[in-house]
Amino acid sequence: MTPDPATAPTPPRLLVLRALGLGDLLAGVPALRALRRAHPRHELVLAAPAGLAPVAEATGAVDRLLPASAPGREVPDSLDWSGPPPDIAVDLHGNGPLSHRLLTHLHPAKLLAFAHPDTPEIDGPPWYAEEHERDRWCRLLRWYGVDADPGDLRLPPPRTASPAPGAAVLHPGAGSPARCWPVKRYAAVAAGLRARGLRVVVTGGADEGDLVARLAKQADLADTDVFGGGLPFGRLSALVAAASCVISGDTGIAHLAVAHGTPSVTLFGPVAPSRWGPPPDPRHRALWYGPEGDPHGRRPDPALLRITPDDVLRAAGELPEIRSGRKGTRHP
Q: Which of 85, 94, 184, 192 might form a disulfide with 313, Cβ 3.0–4.6 angstroms?
């Protein structure tokens, strides 16, 4: 006899709050997978921007995305949660107190979060501002008895074919002007890579069309090498996974390169790679001269401007795909 869905028992639900961007979600993958392993029978619901649903699915850890977002890195005003309270709620958004209160408003049976003086009822571990993002959330879970591995961050190979297999991908945009390296310098890097026989393509987010167009013009790129306007995640993921290298600032595509094991050069400033950089691996180079500055600044940070095109080309030349001269399709 087929069970009646209306009378079937509802599985317990685990709500995770991380209503941030692509790089944030990818940095949180080890924690999400740890929660999945620890609670295999729970429905794991991720509160995050709706556009990240394909990314959440690719992690293999999330059952359902609950659309939630706010400007910048702010905490959403509310969550469109329905039904009984969550059995478990996990704050992977920040150290509170606003994110804590957003979750406690749902009356979860259990809340996992960092301690904060304004929410003394939460008995969590201390927050360390200088800690690496991947390590931070794994430490939070371990404090609550959940085994978590910061190195568990790889995504499976995309099912979509790359639109430019073997290309070097340049991504000039970032979440704030402080993290945007000048277009003129990216154009110089493009010229250097093409002189080495590499195809160079440029990508950009939905609101970065002008930036991408300026780089394409200065680098004299063909229209077929320009992927602006915000590629759908499946296509962007395929492009990155099959690239010879990815060169960008400290932004989401750098984390996507790490997730696919694609060689990368990431330009850091104003935030140090010790907090957001790739794991130690010969496939990844993090350029950083310091000191730290304002991540929300309106101009490229002075630390970022200390990085020259020669620095980037030298680092790219040390990457395995470039050094070996393998310019064909990569297979992660």
A: 192
203 three-class SS:
strand
Short-list 176, 142, 164, 188, CA closest to 244: 164
pLDDT tens digits, residue range 67-102? 999 998 999 999 999 999 999 999 999 999 999 999
Architecture, CATH, for domain 168-324: 3-Layer(aba) Sandwich (3.40)
Yes or no: say if 21 and 252 are a contact pair by the CB < 8 Å rule. yes
Q: pLDDT tens across 34-64, in order?
A: 999 999 999 999 999 999 999 999 999 999 9
**Strand segments (E) across 179-307:** 200-203, 226-227, 245-249, 264-267, 284-287
In whole angstroms, give the CA distance from residue 267 to residue 315.
11
C-beta neighbour count of 224 within 10 angstroms: 10
Which CATH number is correct for 13-143, 3.40.50.10330, 3.10.450.50, 3.40.50.2000, 3.40.50.720? 3.40.50.2000
pTM above 0.90, yes or no: yes
